[in-house]
């Protein structure tokens, strides 16, 4: 065993340590559209950002959401012009808003192209809309960086065995 600097504790100042050292800059943790999420009691999530402003502006809703609101069973409610389905923000059928949410949860620096399963997990924490899984799949399949990072689970092809050249016609 060879002694290194860490074994010489008397020479290393461990009391102060890395008290005020910041390795990652604050701008890496700031997402463009996501703000701080605060839990306000039972399953109520509140968030202020440009996406939510856009969702509030859209008034169309699917039949499934309207029926759930009419049932009034406690799992679906409306608050501050946002509809919550089982504690998640309902996103109306608007291509622009869905694309922005998908982009935020895939392309930002802190997420880093997580792939289909992880991205779906991240989205399901805060948002819900019919066809969420299919939209995530389509977005990831169309993302160049996600396809580059994709792990292939196939064996590498073996060597080719050429056919013999026939001596005469069939």
CATH topology of the domain at 34-148: Endonuclease III, domain 1
Low-confidence stretches: 32-48
Instruction: Figure out the total of helices.
Output: 6
Overall geometric form? flat
Secondary-structure element order, N to C: EEHHEEEHHEHH
In spatial order, strands of the major sheet run 3-4-5-6
Rg calculated over all Cα atoms: 26 Å
Give the number of DSSP strands.
6
Mean pLDDT reading: 80
Helical residue percent band:
25-40%
CATH-level-2 architecture of the domain at 34-148: Orthogonal Bundle
Distance, first to last CA: 74 Å
β-sheet strand percentage: 5-15%
List keywords for this structure.
Endonuclease III, domain 1, two-stranded antiparallel ribbon, four-stranded mixed beta sheet, 170 residues, alpha+beta
Q: What would you note in describing this structure?
A:
- It is a single chain.
- With 170 residues, the chain is of the alpha+beta class.
- The chain has a domain at 34-148: Orthogonal Bundle (Endonuclease III, domain 1), CATH 1.10.340.
- It has six helices and six strands; from the N terminus they run ββααβββααβαα.
- It has helices at 50-57, 63-71, 95-107, 116-126, 132-141, 144-149; strands spanning 38-39, 45-46, 76-79, 82-85, 88-90, 127-128.
- The chain has a four-stranded mixed beta sheet with strand order 3-4-5-6.
- It is flat, with a radius of gyration of 26 Å.
């Amino acid at each position: 065993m060879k002694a290194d600097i860490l074994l010489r504790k008397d020479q290393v100042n461990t009391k102060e340590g890395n008290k005020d050292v910041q390795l990652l800059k604050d701008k890496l943790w700031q997402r463009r559209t996501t703000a701080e999420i605060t839990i306000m009691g039972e399953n109520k999530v509140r968030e202020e950002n440009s996406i939510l402003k856009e969702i509030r502006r859209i008034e169309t809703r699917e039949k499934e959401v309207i029926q759930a609101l009419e049932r009034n069973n406690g799992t679906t409610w409306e608050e501050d012009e946002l509809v919550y389905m089982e504690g998640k923000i309902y996103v109306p059928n608007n291509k622009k808003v869905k694309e922005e949410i998908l982009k935020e949860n895939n392309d930002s620096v802190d997420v880093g192209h997580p792939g289909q399963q992880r991205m779906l997990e991240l989205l399901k924490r805060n948002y819900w809309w019919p066809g969420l899984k299919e939209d995530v799949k389509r977005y990831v399949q169309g993302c160049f960086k996600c396809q580059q990072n994709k792990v292939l689970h196939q064996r590498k092809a073996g060597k080719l065995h050429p056919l013999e050249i026939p001596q005469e016609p069939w």
